Amino acid sequence: MLSLLVLHGPNLNLLGRREPGVYGLLTLDDINTALRSQAERLNAQLEIFQSNHEGTLVDRIQASLDLHQGILINPGAYTHTSVAIRDAISAVALPTVEVHLSNIHQRETFRHHSYIAPVAVGQICGFGADSYRLGLDALVTQLRRQPDKPV
C-alpha cells in the first residue's frame, strides 16, 4: 500500500470562509474527507497535515523520508516565497505534486511564479477542490509507473 503525505499550507484552514469566490465553499475537512475516500479506492494511505508555519511544513517534509513514497502539497502563499520548502522537497527527493484551488497563473503577477514547480513532478491548479483529486490521481499513477520502486 502506498503511503503519501498531504500538506496544506497557510490559510487553508480557513477554506469555506476565506474568499469563497476564489477558493470555493468547501472546507479543508471536506477536502480531506474526499481525499481519504479517494485514497482508499486507490489502495493508498494518507498522512494529512496543515500548518500556517513554514518551518513546521519543512519539518513534516523532512520527516516524510523513509515513511512515505510521495507528497501532495498545496503550499498556499509559500508557493511564491519559500525557498526553504522547495529545498526540503528537493532534499527528500520524493515525487511531489503541487496543487492549487485557484489558477495561480490568472491571478496577481506575484502569484505566477512557483518555487515548488521546478522540484515537483507536476502542478495542477484552477480546478477548485478537484485540483486535489486530480493531483492525488496523478501522484499515485506516477508512483506506480516507477519500475525500480515496488509499491
How does this structure look, described?
There is one protein chain. This protein is α/β, with parallel strands linked by helices and 151 residues long. It has a single domain, classed as Rossmann fold (3-Layer(aba) Sandwich). It is built from five helices and five strands; from the N terminus they run E-H-H-E-H-E-H-E-E-H. The protein has helices at residues 20-23, 28-41, 54-63, 83-92, 130-145, and strands spanning 2-8, 44-50, 70-74, 96-100, 122-125. Helix 3 (54-63) packs parallel to helix 4. The termini are close together. The mean pLDDT is 93. This is 3-dehydroquinate dehydratase.
What's the SSE blueprint?
Layout: E1 2-8, H1 20-23, H2 28-41, E2 44-50, H3 54-63, E3 70-74, H4 83-92, E4 96-100, E5 122-125, H5 130-145
Catalytic activity: 3-dehydroquinate = 3-dehydroshikimate + H2O
Enzyme class: lyase
Protein name: 3-dehydroquinate dehydratase
